[in-house]
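Data follows
____________
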Amino acid sequence: MDDCGSEKTIHYEEEGTQDGAWRTAMSDAERTKNYFIYKLRKNYQEGKLDTSQVARLKAIGFDFDGAVFNASKDSLAVQYPAIAEEWDKERNGKQTPWKVRPLATEKAWWRCPHCDRPYRLAIRSKVISNSGCPYCGYGGERAKVSLPVIRLDTLKSYPSISNAQREVGYSLKTAIDKSKLDRNGIAWCYLIDYELGRIPDFTKGNQVTPVICLETGKRFETQSQAEIELGISRGSICRALNTGKTVKGYHWIRESEYSEEKAAAARAESAPYRVVCLETGTRYKTYVDAGRDLGVEEGNIQQAVKSKSHYARGYHFVNSDEYSTLAKGEIENILKRDGRSRTVVCVETGKRYESIKAASGEYGDRLGSARSRIGLCCKNPYLTFDGKHWCYPDDLESRIDNAEEYTVPRKTAVRCLETGKMYESIADASRDTGINHNSIRSVARGDRHKAGGYTWEYVNPAPDKRDNRGCNQPTAKKVRCAETGNQFVSLSDAARAVGLRNGNSIRRAIDRGGTAGGYHWEYLDEKKEVSTDDHHQADGRAE
């Protein structure tokens, strides 16, 4: 250990950092161990330890006599002589490094051997927190103490950051510590740095420096101004400047680093044209470029192209590959319609409207809700608005043929089993009992057991096709309950019938040969295939 210690000390001396040798003289583990030993001895001296605790510590050979301060081995001057040399004898008075412990929390005065400035800092912080001179940082990191600051535009100094903040009315700590301009573009620094000529560089990584967009050549006074004007999230340009990446398809550069060569290289980056605006005939490399030029959100353009509606915020967009195959008449037909001009039909009356907007015009007091509701009805055959079904002309024949399937009574009577009271609708039951109508509906459907402490059921349960989700899914598997013989069009319908949350448990029961909800289950299609195979095998045996 002695050899290793001597080698470590020599190594620091060779590097010219002898002042750092005392920081590695004691490891963190040893320092923590000494601290706990000190606390145990102090508690023993003050009578805070129980008799059993003292007996156990003595049994393992713990020395309580060490609680008595021994300057020859416990003092700061012995354990950290390099730190003791910075002790300010004049300001500390009778207190000396021989009378204090290295882990003492009391504050003391120190004098930097490099800049000869006095400062006050806790002994513990000086020893274990790598705290050096707060002015020049000698002997470690700059200690976190109150230092005078100076405003560089007026050269007015303040005794501390707090005094400067009270005058300007906003926080300055982050701007001074990270060498940035404040929110008003004013530069601040510590007075000692200004006197020593170590003024920080405020241009690098600062959000208030002028920036230029390489694609457009437009100049912005600050990054924040560019982000607000272009609708870019806060801090995006700063990250782009540091990483060299693009933001919303733009390349950015600081004004001090701008050159025509860099701008030409950014504009010359090749990318395939993806979308064409039919109104202007302009081709764009990306959806972002189109949205930026026309003021349309990127997602709306992408959705318009993929859904073949081609319409987004007053413009029509077509994929570049599709645009080359379109005839002149087809382009004119696309330009004639927009997202709301598709013809709709009322299924009950058969009346046609040029658009959803024209159909909703008959509901002047409910114009806003009518547009959205009619649009939803065209997509979902089970929904109604004003008691009517709505659809597009292409779907009218299918809607008429399946009118009974899509017709669901608007009011369904329910009964409370505990009280025996019957209500004409779920809404009436909710108003009378104060129970949420969705909870009552869930219990009546069999999705839950209780709602408000009561059990509910439909008086005349009509088949609600909206719950038959499996009938609209081509991949739904029909299942059969082995005990009851009931058949279901999907796993979800079977699960709701027996009070299960979803069909996963039924699927696992079939795969593993177990039960779900207390019943055995089987796939109808597989049963048919198995029975057919059995017949073939039986025919083979007979032959």
In short: The chain has 28 helices and 23 strands.
